[in-house]
Amino acid sequence: METAGTRSSQRIETFVKKDGPPNIFVRNREKLTTIGIIFASLLIWEILSRTDLISRIVFPAPSRIITQFFNGLVTGKYMTDMTITFSRIFSGFAIGGGAALILGLLMGFSRRIRKILDPIVAALHPIPKFALLPMVIIIFGIGEASRTAMVSIGAFFPMLINTMIGVMQVNPTYYEVAENYGASRFDLFRKVALPASLPFIIGGMRLSLKSALTITIGVEMVFGNTGLGSVLWLSWETMRMVDMYSVLMIVSIVGFGLTWLLEVLKKILIPWHQEIRSAE
After folding, report:
1. pLDDT tens string for the chain (280 positions)?
2. Distance CA 164, CA 108 (A)
3. What's the rounded Cα separation, in Å, for the pair 258 and 247?
4. Residues contacting 249, CB < 8 A, separation 6+
5. What does residue 107 show for φ and ψ, rounded to 5 degrees?
6. How far apart are CA 187 and CA 34, in angstroms?
7. Rounded CA gap, 186 and 128, in Å?
8. Separation between Cα atoms, residue 130 and residue 218, nearest integer Å
9. Residues 76 and 195 sit within 8 Å (Cβ to Cβ)
10. What is the 3-state secondary structure (H, E, C) of the chain?
11. Cα separation of 46 and 14, whole Å?
12. Do residues 241 and 231 lie in contact, with contact meaning Cβ atoms separated by under 8 Å?
């Protein structure tokens, strides 16, 4: 008869053999490789800057940049501008991405609506978003409304196209099965099209948020006196390169954080999709 101690020992041996440190390193080798590349690049940059092989003015040592970055966070130097930038990103995403989500679901679900609107979307989508800036300023004036409108435009198309494609890729068999069980058209939309297109919708959210972040920084650099983009541009004009790189670090961390949050949301909303990917 096995004792509790024997069973515990067997479980420990199984962990050591299957899930021990070597296996952990194997499973995370991609992440470890990424971290290694980052650290190696920073080390080379540090050496080149300190030995004057590259300009210390244009490329200050990473140790100075990281120190300035953390000092700015501790003292709250960037907090006001970060808050303003975040509000512009999320307000533009809520307006543009929200409208795109609704329209994308309708275009994907209804062939008639898609035939009417798809040529318009195909014509407007390739236009560089900053090419619309003069027209937006004429319509909304030089103020917060223009900035929000530009961010909304940037967030609109990635969300719209991904959502529409997500609904269109649903297998028609699913609709037929639901109809055989007496599902109405609204039921087909709510219980078949929407759940099946969630992976594409979340992918659209990721692209839409990244576009909103990029447009926000660009708009703040062009005609803003507040926000991270304006700090970035002012740092470049005054050659305060350490501050400029610190702001770039903040923008990169924000982008990474948004991606991570969407991955968490994806695991919560569509865990079955994660299971399929793991099985593959």
Report:
1. 445 445 445 544 544 444 445 555 566 777 788 888 889 988 998 899 888 888 888 889 899 899 988 888 888 888 889 999 999 999 999 999 999 999 999 999 888 999 999 999 999 999 998 889 889 999 998 888 999 999 999 999 999 999 999 999 888 888 888 888 887 888 888 888 888 888 899 999 999 999 999 999 999 998 878 889 999 999 888 888 898 999 999 999 988 898 888 888 888 887 766 544 444 4
2. 4
3. 17
4. 65, 66, 69
5. -65, -35
6. 45
7. 37
8. 9
9. no
10. CCCHHHHHHHHHHHHHHHCCHHHHHHHCHHHHHHHHHHHHHHHHHHHHHHCCCCCCCCCCCHHHHHHHHHHHHHHCCCHHHHHHHHHHHHHHHHHHHHHHHHHHHHHHHCHHHHHHHHHHHHHHCCCCHHHHHHHHHHHHCCCHHHHHHHHHHHHHHHHHHHHHHHHHCCCHHHHHHHHHCCCCHHHHHHHHHHHHCHHHHHHHHHHHHHHHHHHHHHHHHHHCCCCHHHHHHHHHHCCCHHHHHHHHHHHHHHHHHHHHHHHHHHHHHCHHHHHHHHHC
11. 44
12. no
pTM confidence score: 0.79
Distance CA 45, CA 160 (A): 41
Sign of the alpha-carbon dihedral angle for 116, 122, 127, 130: positive
Please tell me the class of the 72-279 domain.
mainly alpha
Query: In the numeric block, which tokens belong to residue 19?
Result: 């899930």
Residues of CATH 1.10.3720.10 domain(s) within the chain? Answer: 72-279
Q: What token pair was written down for 154?
A: 């940037």
Residue with tokens 């990474």: 256
